[in-house]
Amino acid sequence: MKSSVLVLGSGRGLGRELCRFFLEEGHSVIGVTRTRESLTALLDDFSPRNQWFRGEAIDLSDRESSLKFLQGLRKELIPDLVVYAAGHLSGRKPLWDLSWEEIDREISSNLAGPLFWSVEMTRAFLMARRGGHLFFSSGVVRLPRPSWGSYGVGKAAIEALSRQISLDLPPPLYSLSMNPGRMATAMRKAAFPDEDQATLPSPVSIAKKVGAFSLTLIEGAGRTYNGKALTMEDIP
Ligand SMILES: NC(=O)c1ccc[n+]([C@@H]2O[C@H](COP(=O)([O-])OP(=O)(O)OC[C@H]3O[C@@H](n4cnc5c(N)ncnc54)[C@H](OP(=O)(O)O)[C@@H]3O)[C@@H](O)[C@H]2O)c1
Questions:
Q1: CB neighbours of 229 closer than 8 A, spacing ≥ 6?
Q2: Minimum CA distance residue for ligand 1 atom 41
Q3: Domains of the chain, CATH where assigned
Q4: Residue 161: which of 124, 117, 195, 129 has the closest Cα?
Q5: Residue ranges lining ligand 1, Cβ < 6 Å
Q6: What is the pTM of this model?
Q7: Contact assessment for residue 55 and residue 89, using Cβ atoms and an 8 Å cutoff
Q8: What is the pLDDT of residues 136-174, one digit of tens each?
């Protein structure tokens, strides 16, 4: 059966490759990019399969635009799964070496935006009596290291957010977080500019594994993983 997936942060990286995976598997996808420019590039990329793809340019931290879109979505189609792939890293620095603009942007993209969308989407899931949240955390949560500043704070809070939501969700609703591990994306480049990205897993390969697992969540396994904070090794 065709499922519907909402992917937040689909302009590039893992979010974009997850959209591609779900479309190739025959599912319908709503992709949210931060800017109109990245939405145009995405629509060009997916044009052969456009019938099942709907794109929106919304900054997740813009509550007014987000709410307008979410209210429309509630009337039309409530997705089966929301994947929170949006994220921002200004660079690896201690908190006090980041500007307030950098801290605000990291906290709004990595925590405040996802929190807002997850609360609103939960209200929609409760109406539909189905639905799940898949958040992405980071290795820095389990193994805290220096210089991960407000990104590290935001990712730790995302795991806490997912767990907190999971404790209150009635079945069959669910929420889980997953650390996708290192991959060759622009975010990783911002963290490790001198690294050879050819030595890293590609976002395409990570998206195939995470995408296939996501489909099992939709097909009924979601509640089994409710409240879990997974790594890639935990994925069957
Ligand atoms: N790459 C890694 O090694 C790694 C490791 C562990 C965890 N992760 C996590 O995995 C997820 C995907 O990472 P990635 O490497 O694919 O990152 P990426 O290449 O930087 O892509 C992130 C995407 O999120 C979008 N985004 C950021 N803030 C947004 C906002 N406020 N509203 C809407 N979209 C927004 C970005 O749009 P713009 O380009 O327009 O800003 C971009 O398209 C993130 O949650 C990240 O923290 C990544």
A1: 137, 141, 159, 162, 163, 176, 177, 178, 179
A2: 34
A3: 4-234 (3.40.50.720)
A4: 117
A5: 9, 11-15, 32, 34-35, 38, 59-61, 85-88, 109, 113, 136, 138, 179-180, 182-183, 185-188, 203
A6: 0.98
A7: no
A8: 999 999 999 999 999 999 999 999 999 999 999 999 999
